[in-house]
Write a structure and sequence with these properties.
The structure holds two protein chains of two kinds. Chain A has two domains: 47 residues; 67 residues, no CATH class. By secondary structure, chain A is mainly alpha-helical. Chain A is built from four helices and no strands. The longest helix of chain A is centred in the middle third of the chain and has 40 residues. Chain B is mostly helical. Chain B has one domain. Helix content of chain B is 73%, strand content 1%. The chains are: A mainly alpha, B mainly alpha. The interface between A and B is large, with 61 and 53 residues.
Chain lengths: 146, 494
């Protein structure tokens, strides 16, 4: 990869793209309501450019390949879990997430491996639904609710 | 005032309040003790739990977590040598040396007493100074609010040591994110990108939960297997009267440093701890002991980092500026409970606020006893496997973010904030300005609008003395890095 495009610079370029996306929306806002955020967009873009082009870049400890795969795959698993929550309900999605997570993070197989997801899911479910009166996602496809 | 204090005592000394204070302290100690976890994370994750409680017990629960969390970080600092929070780094240095001498129990006893002392004295400062500052806050109008918000934000960004530009960048982007949703004047939806679910803006507490919890989970995953250190056994926890009387000056100086640092917006326990440790070394007659198991070093670090807790609530309750990251989340919880910080809080909600003030002092007394107890079981807490901790945090964060408005959008916002927070943290961008900007952003915009309505000529606001005072503060905070640099140069030249 080109030396210029360090991971940090790519991150700031993505932030810059987000700021430009905000800028593209400014035209739809009435003048009374746009001056205040416009200041931050302009200043933000200017700062992002400085952060991209300045010589001094942060020295970040490089992650090994295994760590990157682990973090990325766990982030994906969390995302799938959150997406599934409204489809299959809180209990099924959380149990699935816990077991997949335990397997992924290499928790030793044993009593803890089996019991922890069940206990945590049920404790949180009962605490939130019964004590805190929160209606947790019930699931539009399937769901276990009681 | 006495009437209000009695109201506070009545609110604090109930079975319900005591239960939540104890629960908060224990949860806080566990959150602080687990490496990678922090007081901020504890407060963030438990904010949703406090919604169903009455405001008094809710704030006591969060206060307990806050104080317990700041203290808990010192337990692994002594027993493993890995500080649970950055504020415990000096404690780790001195604590490990004492452990090597076989005095782990003595080190933990000093840590516990110094923490409780610092926290208790800061709560006394809170009881006396918060109502006094509230009287000054009576004179605060929109122009002052505007300057207070700018001051708070500049201090946070400037405190990003060596990362001023990064701090400012994060602050500016977060202020922009705070404008998503309806504008305060016309109610016109801004930056919703056609998604009606964004018309209410981002739920601040969801963002904060994600920001202060998920990055720690990702960091935990990056650690290599076997990174965990050996946990030292806790020897008999002992402390003599001399451990207090022989170091009383250090206790008082360190606590005062902690309180002052706490009052400064977002200057958290870590800054107080390092500053106080350095001051203690300068003042000590036995400088050579520092780094080799100095009791003075532990006292300085612990009394200061717990002194921050009460100090950080002083500007929060009176001016609406949080003095630290957990205090910022505290502000989010207060707003949800219908408690708007400011002078009126001390009259309209006297019962709740004085319960918090008195409760804060009681929490720090409880901290001593429950801290002492938790130290004995610390060996068991610290061996919880990392996968369990990671999954626990994700589950708590997700269900917590959902419960705020029973809305999946908040959970997605929490997740995105968490991923973004991980990258910000990895590249050395401070996260405190995000919390402060999201909370102060709406106040700042409203204050600017109202000031514009009050004064057609903007410069007329400088006829208000209090505005000038805050403008002066802003200039000092902006100029501070330059002044500091010059002072350092002179010192080196001398």
């Amino acid at each position: 990869m080109n030396k210029f495009f360090t991971a940090h610079r790519i991150f700031i370029i993505l932030m810059l793209a987000a700021l430009i996306a905000f800028l593209s929306q400014v035209g739809e806002i009435p003048p009374e309501a746009k001056a205040y955020p416009l200041v931050f967009i302009i200043v933000g873009i200017a700062m992002a450019l400085v952060l991209i082009f300045r010589k001094k870049q942060p020295e970040v400890e490089a992650l090994d390949k295994d760590a990157i795969i682990k973090i990325f795959s766990f982030a994906v698993v969390i995302f799938v879990y959150l997406m599934l929550m409204s489809k299959v309900g809180y209990i099924i999605s959380t149990l699935l997430f816990m077991y997949v997570g335990e397997w992924m993070l290499k928790l030793k197989k044993g009593v803890l491996f089996v019991v922890f997801p069940i206990v945590l899911t049920l404790v949180l479910y009962l605490l939130f639904t019964r004590v805190l009166s929160v209606i947790l996602p019930m699931g539009t496809w399937i769901g276990i609710n009681f | 005032m006495i009437e209000n204090l009695l109201l506070g005592i009545a609110g604090t000394f109930t079975i319900e309040s005591f239960l939540f204070m104890i629960l908060g302290v224990v949860i806080g100690i566990i959150f602080g003790a687990l490496p990678g976890f922090s007081a901020t994370m504890g407060v963030a994750v438990f904010v949703p739990f406090s919604y169903v409680l009455e405001p008094g017990p809710a704030l006591l629960l969060l206060s307990g977590i806050y104080c317990g969390g700041v203290y808990g970080g010192s337990i692994p600092a002594v027993l493993i040598g890995i500080p649970g929070t950055p504020a415990s780094v000096p404690t780790a240095l001195e604590g490990r040396a004492l452990v090597a001498k076989g005095e782990s129990g003595h080190a933990l006893a000093i840590v516990t007493f110094a923490s409780a002392f610092g926290g208790f004295m800061s709560s006394i400062a809170l009881i006396f100074f918060a109502p006094l500052l509230a009287i000054i806050a009576m004179r605060v109008g929109p122009p002052e609010q505007m300057m207070i918000a700018i001051f708070g934000l500049t201090v946070v960004c400037m405190l990003s040591e060596g990362n001023m530009l990064k701090g400012l960048f994060v602050g500016v982007v977060s202020l922009l994110l705070a404008t998503v949703g309806q504008d305060p004047v016309l109610g016109f939806p801004r930056f919703t990108f056609g998604n009606f679910m964004l018309s209410g803006g981002f739920e601040t507490v969801s963002v904060l939960i994600g920001l202060f919890s998920l990055p720690e989970v990702f960091k935990m995953l990056a650690e290599k297997e076997g990174d965990g250190q050996e946990i030292s056994k806790v020897s008999k926890m002992t402390m003599s009267l001399r451990d207090f009387t022989g170091h009383i000056g250090n206790y008082i100086r360190s606590t005062i440093i902690g309180i002052i640092i706490g009052i400064i917006p977002a200057a958290g326990p870590d800054i107080a701890s390092f500053l106080s440790y350095n001051e203690a070394r300068k003042a000590s007659k036995h400088k050579e002991e520092f780094g080799k198991g100095s009791v003075d070093g532990i006292i300085a670090s612990e009394a200061a980092n717990n002194g921050v807790t009460g100090g950080s609530l002083i500007p929060l309750l009176t001016l609406g500026i949080p003095g630290s990251a957990p205090a910022a989340i505290f502000l989010g919880a207060m707003i949800i409970h219908g408690l708007r910080p400011g002078p009126l809080l001390f009259t309209q909600n006297a019962g709740v606020i004085y319960t918090l003030l008195i409760g804060f002092a009681v929490i720090n007394i409880l901290l001593f006893f429950f801290g002492w107890l938790c130290c004995k079981f610390a060996g068991k807490i610290l061996v919880i496997p990392k996968p369990i901790l990671a999954l626990l945090i994700v589950a708590l964060s997700s269900v917590g973010a959902f419960s705020i408005q029973q809305n999946m959008m908040d959970v997605i916002v929490m997740y995105v904030a968490g991923v973004l927070g991980y990258f910000l943290d990895r590249y050395g961008y401070p996260l405190s300005p995000v919390a402060l900007a999201l909370l102060l952003g709406p106040m700042l915009e409203e204050a600017i609008m109202l000031t514009g309505t009050m004064y057609s000529n903007f410069f007329m606001i400088f006829t208000r003395p209090l505005t000038d005072v805050f403008v002066l503060f802003i200039f000092v905070s902006l100029g501070w890095p330059i002044i500091k640099k010059q002072l350092k140069k002179r010192k080196e030249a001398a």
